[in-house]
Amino acid sequence: MIEIERKFLVLSDDFINEAFAKKRIVQAYLNSNPERTVRIRIKEEKGFLTIKGKGNATGTTRLEWETEIPLQDAEKLLTICESGTIDKIRHEVKVGNHMYEVDVFAGENEGLIVAEIELQSEDEIFKKPSWLGKEVTNDERFYNAYLSVKPFKSW
Amino acid sequence: MIEIERKFLVLSDDFINEAFAKKRIVQAYLNSNPERTVRIRIKEEKGFLTIKGKGNATGTTRLEWETEIPLQDAEKLLTICESGTIDKIRHEVKVGNHMYEVDVFAGENEGLIVAEIELQSEDEIFKKPSWLGKEVTNDERFYNAYLSVKPFKSW
């Protein structure tokens, strides 16, 4: 139930050619408070309910709990979420032994591209591809929950 | 996913002798906002995650979605809930063809006893036992989510 993750801005779209999968994600929040976010997500034809706790001091480690739920239930639950739906295309890009998830945002967050990498420990070494930019792991403005309330275009 | 329910105050403890089951419930909220409550509940040795939408005009009908979750996960998720845990003993009391759930609250809500009945339609007829008091279905103060923030003893 512990997720260790680091997040980076993306400098160019050179990752596109390296991506081996592309999935549309639509998600909204039953609670966008970073102390206890509750997210409803539809990823292609699957529904998910995800709960996350607050990040630690570096923002790298958070409690995370997820369960798959029926697509129809996810659609129903989206109707009672807070306003501010996140719409993005997730590209899965393998770099060395790790997988980067590169999210290209649409709608109110168009223009934002963010890459995340999940790690086994906080100090795990990983390869940084040329298109990887500044680290924003500890910057709450880039939390999707925050983007649902204060979208990138409004910055 | 639609729940139709009516709620009443309880006048006496005469229901105790009619109860055929008694279960301890401990619950707290990942969101206590009545527009979209998210509840973590431990009922005896089982964990549950429940999401409810806003009530209709009469407060009788709400969207409700529930899933059982592992007890250990529920215990972990309780640690990131809002403060204000609800602790109560639920008595199941059969009256005619219906089941009343009579909740005897403890802790900060001690002194409060509330009975709920689940119906198939808003206008369904049901028997009212002698211990049943005033209807409070539409009174948000008696929502458990509200009681977690403003407990009965503080009224």
TrEMBL record, chains A, B:
<dbReference type="GO" id="GO:0050355">
    <property type="term" value="F:inorganic triphosphate phosphatase activity"/>
</dbReference>
<dbReference type="Pfam" id="PF01928">
    <property type="entry name" value="CYTH"/>
</dbReference>
<feature type="domain" description="CYTH">
    <location>
        <begin position="1"/>
        <end position="149"/>
    </location>
</feature>
<keyword id="KW-0378">Hydrolase</keyword>
<feature type="active site" description="Proton acceptor">
    <location>
        <position position="29"/>
    </location>
</feature>
<dbReference type="InterPro" id="IPR033469">
    <property type="entry name" value="CYTH-like_dom_sf"/>
</dbReference>
<dbReference type="InterPro" id="IPR012042">
    <property type="entry name" value="NeuTTM/CthTTM-like"/>
</dbReference>
<dbReference type="InterPro" id="IPR023577">
    <property type="entry name" value="CYTH_domain"/>
</dbReference>
<protein>
    <submittedName>
        <fullName>Inorganic triphosphatase</fullName>
        <ecNumber>3.6.1.25</ecNumber>
    </submittedName>
</protein>
